[in-house]
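Quick one: structure tokens for this chain, please?
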Amino acid sequence: MFVTPGADNADDRIDWAWTAMPATHALADDLSGSGLLRGRRVGVSLVLEPKTAALALALRDTGAEVAVFSAVSETDPAVAEALSARGVRVFAPGGAGSAETDADNAAGILDWHPDLLIDDGSHLVRLAHTERRGTLETLRGAAEETTSGVRPLVEMAAEGELRIPVIAVNDARTKGLFDNLHGTGQSCVLAIADLLDPVENPGRTLPRRDVIGAVWLVIGYGPVGQGVARHAAALGAQVLVLERDPVRALAAAHDGYGVVSSIADPEVDTVDVVVSATGVWHTVGLDLLTRVREDTVIAVAGGIDDEIALDDAHAAGWTVRRVEPDLSAWSAPATPAKIVYVLADGGGVNYTAAEGNPIEVMDLSFATQLVALRQLCRDGLEPGLHPIDTAAEAEVAALVLEQRMGRTAVDIPTDPGRVGGAAQHWSTHRYRSESSV
């Protein structure tokens, strides 16, 4: 369970978030005017902190009935309590009537029978397709927030097992280019820096880990990994990248980072901080946990369950000692004196041990979620995984440009009816003879 700053003023923090999400509010106002969500039940499964609470309240103002679910490690209980007091049903610690376990709360929001669902990790969508299939009788569609959630949905769709339409919000440009790259990159690096800062944590036995001069190994060079590398380097870290896709590995090299091809590379012996940014199970396996040098710090950016193979470490007899709430010391039975530190128990460090992503990028993401809900209500999509409408992406981006900068997108003169968007017919080219004019 994490607590955002000012835990005794949850209402104030929700109100502040409410005022700092203009794009979300503008699109919620449009949905309210259209009546598309009026009377519908909308379930929200996201990290529960002030920004998510503001989204839930915006959805409620569209005329929808709203319920929120969040796992215990991803819930600020003061925010959950404050949101519950404002009339939103909360299936999370701190919510009125919350169940004792995450599994019971997850089942509870599905048994509430939402019409629409905003999901994180596609956990609730998958639960509805397995142990809570009765939910599918009323569930009209869902919008998926994360990379790690889209991946299993692709598999479900390929196997013909996805029974509802799901919009891959994560793949929208207004989400991935900002939330993943800038938001998660920044929030993860700052969370790690804060947790390792001796000024913030006086008396800690952990060796000093300033970002400047430290060697960071970033595993995965998708948008999240790119963001982590960029922000760590900006604070003075020496960044190494381990990426299995050779094109992305080459991109990392062109971006100025060192590239290692495997954990056996000698550069891995110099690493101070390891960040997994893949969203892939067991990215950090026992081999890497054993290989890194003493006092190495390991964290997950974004992340899924068991992205660090701590389950294998337990099974192999590793010992663990809680140093602080978000810092644990691990040692292998063969080398009990060698300590490896794990942040946030291997959970996504930015949302389980810090404040989550900056509100500016979350405003973009939540605005994109709202246009996804609009698309689900309006377009009559077939079961399967769908991209967000490109016109809706442009709508969200133009709205944010205008609100934040007082500007609109440049109007490039093209024929909107021409396939490919070229300004002239394809037969017009530089070597065209005068006789053909």
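The domain at 7-171+357-402 is CATH 3.40.50.1480 (Rossmann fold).
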